[in-house]
Amino acid sequence: MHTFENLSITCKDGYTLAARFYKTAKNNHNLLPVLICPATGITMNFYHAFSEWLAEQGYDVLSFDFRGIGASLYGALKHSTASIQDWGLLDIPAAIETLLANTQADQVILLGHSAGGQLTGIIPNYHKIARVVAIAGSTGHVRGLKGRTRQLAPIMFHVIFPVSSFFKGYGATKMLGMGENLPRKVASQWALFCSKPGYVINAIGKTIFEDHHHRITCPVSVFWSADDEIATEANVRDLLRLYPNAETQMHQLRPSDFGHRQIGHMLMFKKSHQNIWPFICHEFMA
Question: Contact, 149 vs 157, CB < 8 A?
């Protein structure tokens, strides 16, 4: 039996996104609904267990696939024109409106995983976000990476992406164990945004012409793990500096404190790590 309802989200440009709506059985109108915005190349199914758990806590939850990814990809990947800026300018805004329409709430809590928490400053209806909770949220700046990822990133960005885009028409990430293969524009923008500090700031005035970062006044919190090679402390700080008028919080987690060997960039949403979830949920009300 499904614990969610399949929904379609229609974006401003007419593009349709696949989504799941988890309606809580609890009658608690004091809790704002939660919008889960996925990481690059990660589908909404990855967040299923966490979404179910949030619904059990009394939250209505909407998860979705960005355009060009998972169930929001139509046709061959090589033909997709999706870009990261589309995700922030079109997909997330439409998801916000869909969640509000289904809950009659005025605002949402945006829970963004990695890239899903990096785009708040370009979302046109940012005023409908009451709080941002970014999981493994950072700018991903290559000089701030560590470990194996710091060695792999230049190869992925400057060799694998260009070669696979030329010969296959998309950015090859699946073979690296980094989620779904990516539309070529997503791959090229990912490389561009991470090449300098500030992530999406690098597109302002070039392909994005409205910058709302300084208008964001809602609380912005980041949870990241000490063993995360992407969302390092330097890269988390680089993200939060983009919101000078917001109250920001940094929450570093250490795997050993929760009885885990690893948390990294991805494991926070796994059932095996559900003892972390109450700490994340507590931030919704902080």
Answer: no
